[in-house]
TrEMBL record:
It is an enzyme of class 2 (transferase). This is histidine kinase. Its EC number is 2.7.13.3. Pfam families: HATPase_c. Keywords: Kinase, Phosphoprotein, Transferase. SUPFAM superfamilies: ATPase domain of HSP90 chaperone/DNA topoisomerase II/histidine kinase (SSF55874). Residues 191-212 are annotated as: Disordered. GO terms for cellular component: plasma membrane.
Length: 212
C-alpha cells in the first residue's frame, strides 16, 4: 500500500487499459470477501444496472479500488450488518458505490478520511486498525483513472463511498513502474516510513489485513 501510494504521487504508476465487463470484477471481489463477511454474519450483496456495456479502463486498478472499499466496509461494519456494491453508468462514466451499515463517520471527520494514515471516529479495535492508507489509495487510483471519489455518511448509520471514472479512457504514454530507479523508489517509500523491497503488484488476501 505504501509503495503504491508513493508511485502514484510520483506519477509513476502504470495504467494498462483493457476492455472488460465490470460485473466480472465485482463478482470476483465478492467471492474473495464472502468468507470474511460470513465470519461476521454480514450480508454481502451487489446490484448491477442492466445493460452496462463493457468498460475500457484498467481492470486491475478497478479491482484495487473495490478491494480497499470492501475491506474498509467490512472492517467497520458490526456483526449482522450489510455491505453492498452497486455498479451503474450515466453513459459516459462507470459509477461504483460501496455502502455499509457500519459505524459511520461524523460530518467533521468526513473531509479527513482520505488523508494518509488517518483513521477517524470511535476508538478502533485491533481488528479495525490498519495502515490508514486504503482510502488514500482509492482517491489516488480514482484520480489516476481520470475520476474522483465521494462520500456520504451518517454517524451510527453507515457510509457510502462512490467512485466515478470514465467508462472509456485511453492511457497516454504511461511510465512503466519498472523504469523507477531503486534509489528513487526507496526514497519515496521512506517518506512514509516503510522499507523498500521489490514486490509484485497483486492484492493481498483479506485474511492478511483482518487477523483474528
Amino acid at each position: 500500500d505504501v509503495l503504491d501510494l508513493a508511485k502514484m504521487e510520483a506519477g509513476r504508476m502504470e495504467v494498462r487499459v483493457e476492455q472488460f465487463h465490470p460485473s466480472e470484477i465485482v463478482d470476483a471481489m465478492l467471492n474473495m470477501f464472502r468468507p470474511l463477511a460470513e465470519k461476521k454474519n454480514i450480508a454481502l450483496t451487489s446490484e448491477i444496472e442492466p445493460g452496462i456495456p463493457p468498460a475500457k479502463q484498467d481492470p486491475s486498478k478497478i479491482q484495487q479500488i473495490l478491494w480497499n472499499l470492501l475491506s474498509n466496509a467490512i472492517k467497520f461494519t458490526p456483526e449482522g450488518g450489510r455491505v453492498s456494491v452497486r455498479v451503474e453508468t450515466d453513459g459516459a462514466h462507470l459509477i461504483l458505490s460501496v455502502s455499509d451499515t457500519g459505524i459511520g463517520i461524523a460530518p467533521e471527520d468526513q473531509g479527513k478520511v482520505f488523508e494518509k494514515f488517518r483513521q477517524v471516529g470511535q476508538a478502533l479495535t485491533r481488528e479495525q486498525s490498519g495502515t490508514g492508507l486504503g482510502l488514500s489509495i482509492v482517491r489516488e487510483l480514482a484520480k489516476l483513472l481520470g475520476g474522483n471519489v465521494g462520500l456520504k455518511s451518517e454517524l451510527g448509520r453507515g457510509s457510502t463511498f462512490t467512485v466515478t471514472v470514465p467508462l472509456h479512457w485511453e492511457a497516454t504514454s504511461p511510465v512503466p513502474v519498472d523504469s523507477l530507479e531503486p534509489s528513487m523508489l526507496a526514497s519515496l517509500a521512506g517518506r512514509y516510513g516503510a522499507p523498500w523491497r521489490p514486490a509484485k503488484e497483486t492484492p493481498r488476501p483479506p485474511e492478511e489485513t483482518h487477523d483474528d
